[in-house]
Structure formats: structure tokens, C-alpha cells
Amino acid sequence: MCGGQALIEGIMMRGPKKQAVVVRKPDGALEEQVEGRVLIKDKYPILGLPFLRGVFNFCSSMANGVKALMYSASFFPEDEEPEEPSKFEVWLDEHLGSEKAASVFVTLAVVLAMGFSVLLFFLLPTALVGGLGRLVMLPMWLRNLLEGVVRIVIFVVYLMLCSKMKDMRRVFSYHGAEHKCINCIEHGLPLTVENVRSSSRQHKRCGTSFLFLVLAISIIMLVLVRAETPLMRIVIRIALLPVIAGISYEFLKLAGRSENVIVNLFSKPGLAIQKLTTKEPDDGMIEVAIQAVEAVFDWRAYEAENFHTAADH
To answer: Given this model, what pLDDT does residue 277 score?
Structure first.
């Protein structure tokens, strides 16, 4: 199947072999960029093994997502006059070339984003509960449990604040359009604006659900870990992140293809949080999502094979 990411006035869609970015430019026209997709497991088969693939796929998706986001933002400059490049940008361009310089900026953006996430959702709750622990004596298991609850509260509040921002609401609407397209296909309906509009904007394989799973599974794992000093608590939390991410990824893949009652039950919190990160799109946004899907995925052949529908409808 395929999956994607919302951009600034656009969508990035990844299919089995291709990746496409479709952006609606200020003049209303659609700009499409399609390129071949090389999977990490094709280069390094060992990284395609269960529990390993989740970490590396997540990092790869973040890098591709940042690159696509920068591309979509290039159509909407904040200032009328082009901004002069900084000395650092000039130096990189002279010594590395424009393509390698862009790669450096993407890598730096990914590292900063991951660092900010670890700081906000892991280290900050550890510091807050650690401060409380100095005032009130708490058993270690209760301290770890409380830390997990604080982590999820910060995550939800962060998403609520983002959803109130005007520009982010449009991004979240494109996110909804992406989900609706995939749900439309997975229910065997022709990919039309009308069918997509009536499809659900929530999906079990969403990145929002993945992030929630990381936080939820961290509660279970960290409750079982005992560390007395603040430094060791921080070290253990960072060291366990790849393990937690790997487990979360495998559950997300399972949830995407299973209708098991227990799996669905554990998927519900993530689906509920998606109400914050997806909004109802307008027809123009749906058109962008449809074009992005059709650029990377033969949905007619998929529906003909899985739902015995006519491949030319």
C-alpha cells in the first residue's frame, strides 16, 4: 500500500517503488515531483529485520519528510525580496555543493527535531517528576508511572496547541485528506472526490499513533526499570528509545493489517488523538491527495485484486 505526510499546501505520498510530492502553488496550479524510492532494507537487508526496521524507517521517514517540507515551503516565501544566504550557507555551498549542502541542512533539521522531542517528551517529564520526588517520597514504580502520565499529558497539550494555529490547521487538513484517500482505497471505493470526502480521516498506521505508542510503551518498560540517580534515569530512558520505537513500529504494522479485537482496543487511543492532528479537508485538498496517490500507486489494480472490482472504473 502507500502512506504519506502532510506538507505546506501539499502532500508527500510514498508508494511501494515511488515517492511523490504534490503542492498547490499560490496561483492554484498543482506542482508534482516524483522520484524513485530506495528502501533501507534493499541496501542493508539486516535493517529490514523486525524490531530493527522500525528505528531506521522512522529516521529515514523523518529525513524524507523534512526534505519534502522544505520543498513545499519554497513555493511560499515569507518575504517578497529573497533573503541573503548566511555566511554558513555560503561556506557549505562552496565546499560541498548545493546538493550536499541541502543534505547537511536536512540532517541537521532531523537531529534537532529528534533532540527537541527527546527533551520535551522524555527528559522534561523526568525532571518534573524528579523534582516532585524530592518533595514527596514516592516508590520508584509509582514515580515511573507518574512520569509516563506526565509525558502523555505534555504530548496531548502540545498537539492541542498546534491544532489552534491557523497554518497548522491547514496542514492538519491535508493530513486528513491523505488519510481519507488511503481509507477510500482500502475499502474498495473508486478514488473520487466524493468517495474520499465520505471516508474516515483516522487511520491505524498514522504517525500520530506511532508517537503515542512510543509514549505508552515507554510507561510499561520504564515502570519495570529501577534507577536511583537522576543521571542513570536519563541514560536509561535515552538508551531504551530505539527498543521502544522498534516495538511500537511492529505493533503499528500489525494494527494496519489486523482487525483483532485486542489490537483494535489498543489502537483506539492513537485514533482518538488523531482528531487533533487531522481536520476535515476541502475538495481542493482532496484533489491534491488523489493526485499524490495516483503518482505512486495503481489503486485500480489493487482494488481489482483485493475487491474483485473492474480495474478501469
So the answer is: 96
Q: How far is CA 304 from the centre of its chain?
A: 29
Q: Are 184 and 163 in contact (CB under 8 A)?
A: no
CA distance 268 to 281: 22
How many CB atoms neighbour CB 139 within 10 A?
Answer: 8
Cα–Cα nearest to 292, from 181, 190, 176: 181
User: CA 307, 308, 311, 312: dihedral to nearest 10 degrees?
Assistant: -100
Q: What's the pLDDT at 199?
A: 97
Sign of CA dihedral 52, 54, 55, 61: positive
Instruction: State the pLDDT at residue 256.
Output: 86
* CB contact at 8 A, 304 and 24: no
- pLDDT for the residue 136: 82
Asked if 94 contacts 286 with a C-beta cutoff of 8 angstroms, the reply is: no
- For residues 212 and 191, what is the distance between their CA atoms, to the nearest angstrom? 30
- 155, three cell numbers: 504530548
C-alpha span between 175 and 241 (Å, rounded): 26
Q: Which is nearest to 249 in space by CA: 202, 215, 213?
A: 213
pLDDT at residue 99 in the model? 61
Q: Which residues of the chain have pLDDT under 70?
A: 78-105, 309-313
Map grid coordinates 531504551 to a residue: 240
CA distances from 288 to 152, 205, 208 (A): 33, 20, 21
Q: In the prediction, which pLDDT does 108 show?
A: 81
Please report the pLDDT score of residue 301 as a whole number.
Answer: 94
Distance CA 138, CA 149 (A): 15
